[in-house]
Amino acid sequence: MPPIRLVHVTDTHLSATHGYFAHNWAAFRDAMAESPPDFLVHGGDLTFNGPVAEGDIGFGAAELARLGLPWRAIAGNHDVGEAPPFSRLDQPVDAARLAAWHRHVGPSWWVQDLGEWRLVGLDTALMGSGLAEEAAQADFLAQALAGRDGRPVMVFIHMPPFDADAADTAFSTSVILPAPRAALLDACAAGGVKVIACGHLHVYRRLRHRGMEIVWAPPTAMVDVQRQMARRRRFPRPGYVEWVLEGKRATHRLVEPQRMFVIDMSGWTKRNGGTTTTLPPLGV
């Protein structure tokens, strides 16, 4: 079987009414047309503000379909909201927001066999939410791992499981809450997961944990230059991650298209005491 090319793109923040990142998405679309991968996974935050603007979800789904590629997507906090205990944007995930995602994009969790690999998509907004869907998703993951039939597994989630320390119990809106994090990592480590692919923090990064490679994909949308230079000493650029699956081996490379602009909204949000979702409309 020839190698399989898999693209992981995330944090695109698409909208017909707030098109701040449309140019970078167009550059990504052109890159996909020039060299189409075999499969694409969108890793969440497809939309600018999906929890309060269902039109953003429909727009984002249409843009994914426009690529003309086989694809799957998982939801991010800017798509369906956040687990109620840590809803920083006051947009707790609920039945209506999940239903909007299901109508336009697809299920909250899914499994996709690709070559000799099993891909699993999960919704991190449900982890720690206390909703019935949280337990249902955990049951689904257990079944997907138990039925993998020897396949190595790549799990796609929006929020990373942790930053530097998997045992860190500090509250954070940047990573999965400690209790569901521990359950997820235990299940993955015991269930043949070789890769956890995530996003959310708008930076490329990689580390190893318990035999698993954890890879953060960069955004195609905005970055925070000052923060990432201070924390990682690396100038952040937009882009995506391309995986190559050869048998049961997976390798990846960071792709930073020259035609993608470095867009930093942190100055505006700090001066205006808001978040990216409070930016004024800007048509595509």
Automatic annotation (TrEMBL):
It comes from the Bacteria. It holds the Pfam family Metallophos. Residues 4-204 form the Calcineurin-like phosphoesterase domain. This is Metallophosphoesterase.
